[in-house]
Amino acid sequence: AMILSPIVTIEQYEMPTKMPNALQLFEDMARYWASTSFAEEAELWSLFAAIPKEPSLAPGRLPFFLVPGYPEIPDWKKLMGFVRAGGKTGVSYLNGGEHTNLVELPKRPYLMIDVEDGRSYLKVSQDDAASRIRAARRSGFTTFESWAYATIFPVLERQSLFSVESLLDGEFVPTLYRNQEIGPTLGGLRSGFAVSTYGTPSCRERREC
Question: Among 24, 32, 34, 93, which residue's Cβ finds the most Cβ atoms within 10 Å?
Fold first, then answer.
């Protein structure tokens, strides 16, 4: 049976001491992605030996995040149906425009290591946040990674996300935000804007099996 997301409460998410330990967190993520048929359970578990075993690092910062493989052609409308916030499921306004990733994503499940949800970049423009993230030898999220993160964790209950490692029509930064009327929404914003409720998530590395 399909498991409903997110897999932790907002209270757990905001307090690392209440989060599951590394083993339980991995197991919960693997069970979710397998239950939704986004990845094979055996492929997901092949990554278990590669996870850092330390606990959550701080509020909004996790030692790892398990991501299903990037689909050949993402169906954003279908994918957003798995994102839940405020009692509503998500919608997409990407409208089939040209979507490109600035980093290559694995087609098989992979780990993002040392993940920060972007709260330290609230009120910072996408361009400035992207520059600072790269200067720290980290990588921002792609649209797909932001979608996966917002599916598993209730991050949209506290902030919206800029996906600075993807582009829409060559000039718009993909955004994932919670519209109070509609629910979780996937859209885009012209590059260069700083918005008080938007963060830019990042990771230290992507680790494949």
Answer: 32
